[in-house]
Write a structure and sequence with these properties.
By secondary structure, the protein is an alpha/beta fold. It has 2 domains: 203 residues, no CATH class; 157 residues, no CATH class. It has a 9-stranded mixed β-sheet with strand order 1-4-3-5-6-2-11-12-15, with helices on both faces. Helix 10 links the parallel strand 9 and strand 10. Helix 5 packs parallel to helix 7. The radius of gyration is 21 Å and the shape is globular.
Length: 400
C-alpha cells in the first residue's frame, strides 16, 4: 500500500539522527517501489523508480564533480547539482546510486520525488530533491555491510552503471574496513576516472579526502585531539600515512583531510590536529609519521576542509589546465550558519608528540559562508584568510 506522508509535518529530507524508514510497497502508480532481499544476499537493495529504463545521456561528464556534505539534514540543491553534472536531462533517464553500510534506506523517495505527493514532474519544494523532474529515472540504495558484499558481482554491476553515486552517513570505519581494496573500491575508482559525480555526507564525506579520519577506535572531540595528537582515537588512513594506499583519494582533494559536523560538534580543533599530523618532521618541527609540508606550496602542503551541518561544498573540475573550484550551498530552511572552512598550517608544529599537547602557530583559515563566492581549490584563493594558533593544546582565538 502507498506510504502515507501527509501525517509528517517535516519534509522527508534524510537526516541520520532520525529513525530510518524502509519502504516496502509500490508508490506513485508503479513508478516507485522499494524492496529488500536481506537474508538471501550479503547486501540489501532498495529501488525507487525504474532502473530498467534505458539511459540516453548524450554528453558524458568531461570533468569531475564532488559533493562534500557536512551532515545533518541533506542539502537538496547538492543532489540536483550532481544530477545535472552527470549529464542527466529530461528524457535522458539516469541512475542514482546511494551506498551505505547499515540498512536504513530513506533516500529513494527524497531524491526522486518533488514533494509529498510523489510528483515526478513538479518543481521540487524544500525537503525534496526532485530528481525525476530533472530526468532521473531511478534511485538505487545498496547496504554493503561486509567485504563479501563489497565483492559481490551484483553490487558492483549496479554501482558500475551509476550516473551518480552518494555515500550516506554512518560510521566511516565500516567504509574503510568493508570497502577499501575490494571490488567496490575498484568500481568506484573506475567511476571517478569517468568523471561520474561522487558525493557523501557525514561519514560518507569523511572518506573522500586523500587522507581520512578513519575512526577505527571510535571518535573524539577537539579538546582530546589538541591535548594529544597521538591519542589512540586519532586514527588516520592510510596507516601509516602514505601518498598511496588511500581509499578513494580524488585528485581535487590531494593533500587534504576532511571533517564534518564542524559547527554543531565544535570540531575545528580536531581538524587542525588531523592536518598537523600530516606534516613531516624537519628541523625539530613537525609530527612523527607525517609526510607533507606546512606552508602554501600546493604541491605538498597539508590542508584540511571542514563543513558545517546542512552545508554542501560543490567541487568541480573545469577542464585541462584549469583549477578545481568549489562553492557552498545550503537549504533555504537552514537554521545554522552552514559554512565551510579551509584550513592550512603555514608553520610546522613546534610540539607534536605522543602524550603532549599540540603547539603550532599561524594556522590559516578561510571561511566560506555564502553561496555566491567561488573558491579556487587548486590555488587556495578566493577568500580572505584569518589565523589562529594552537598553544599547549588550546586555540588562541575562535577559529570560526
Amino acid at each position: 500500500m502507498p506510504r502515507t506522508r501527509t501525517a509528517l509535518p517535516l519534509p522527508l529530507r534524510p537526516q541520520w539522527g532520525r529513525q530510518a524508514i524502509k519502504l516496502s510497497a509500490m508508490l506513485a502508480i508503479g513508478l516507485s517501489c522499494s524492496l529488500s532481499i536481506a537474508g538471501k544476499k550479503p547486501y540489501d537493495y532498495y529501488v525507487t523508480g525504474n532502473p530498467d529504463t534505458p539511459v540516453l545521456i548524450a554528453t558524458q561528464p568531461s570533468t569531475p564533480s564532488l559533493v562534500l556534505m557536512g551532515g545533518g539534514p541533506d542539502v537538496d540543491e547538492a543532489f540536483r547539482w550532481m544530477i545535472t553534472r552527470a549529464g542527466i536531462r529530461p528524457g535522458t533517464g539516469g541512475h542514482f546510486v546511494v551506498l551505505q553500510a547499515s540498512a536504513r534506506d530513506t533516500y529513494g523517495p527524497y531524491i526522486l520525488f518533488s514533494n509529498a505527493d510523489s510528483s515526478t514532474t513538479a518543481a521540487p519544494v524544500d525537503g525534496w530533491a526532485g530528481g525525476a523532474s530533472l530526468g532521473l529515472t531511478s534511485v538505487e540504495t545498496l547496504n554493503v555491510p561486509s567485504t563479501g558484499a563489497a565483492n559481490d558481482p551484483t553490487v558492483n554491476a549496479i554501482v558500475a552503471r551509476a550516473d551518480a553515486v552518494f555515500i550516506a552517513g554512518g560510521d566511516q570505519s565500516n567504509y574503510i574496513q568493508f570497502w577499501k581494496s575490494t571490488e567496490l573500491d575498484h568500481t568506484l575508482q573506475g567511476l571517478m576516472a569517468r568523471n561520474v559525480p561522487i558525493g557523501g555526507t557525514s561519514a560518507g564525506m569523511a572518506v573522500l579526502g586523500q587522507f581520512d579520519f578513519s575512526a577505527m577506535r571510535g571518535t573524539l572531540d577537539s579538546s582530546q585531539a589538541l591535548a594529544d595528537p597521538y591519542n589512540k582515537y586519532v586514527t588516520l588512513d592510510p596507516a601509516p600515512l602514505s601518498l598511496t594506499g588511500g581509499f578513494l583519494t580524488p585528485p581535487a582533494l590531494a593533500n587534504t583531510v576532511l571533517d564534518t559536523h564542524l559547527d554543531s560538534r565544535d570540531r575545528m580543533g580536531r581538524l587542525i590536529t588531523f592536518t598537523a599530523r600530516l606534516i613531516a618532521p624537519t628541523n625539530g618541527r613537525g609530527c612523527t609519521g607525517g609526510i607533507l609540508a606546512a606552508g602554501s606550496n600546493q604541491a605538498n602542503s597539508a590542508r584540511g576542509i571542514g563543513v558545517d551541518v546542512e552545508a554542501a561544498l560543490l567541487v568541480q573540475g573545469n577542464g585541462p589546465y584549469q583549477p578545481y573550484t568549489a562553492r557552498r550551498v545550503t537549504n533555504v530552511s537552514t537554521v545554522s550558519e552552514s559554512a565551510v572552512y579551509f584550513v592550512r598550517p603555514l608553520q610546522a608544529p613546534t610540539l607534536c608528540a605522543p602524550g603532549k599537547p599540540l603547539s603550532m602557530s599561524t594556522v590559516e583559515i578561510r571561511k566560506l559562508g555564502n553561496s555566491n563566492t567561488v573558491f579556487n581549490l587548486s590555488e587556495w584563493t578566493g577568500l580572505t584568510p584569518y589565523y589562529v594558533d594552537a598553544v599547549a593544546g588550546s586555540l588562541t582565538s575562535s577559529p570560526y
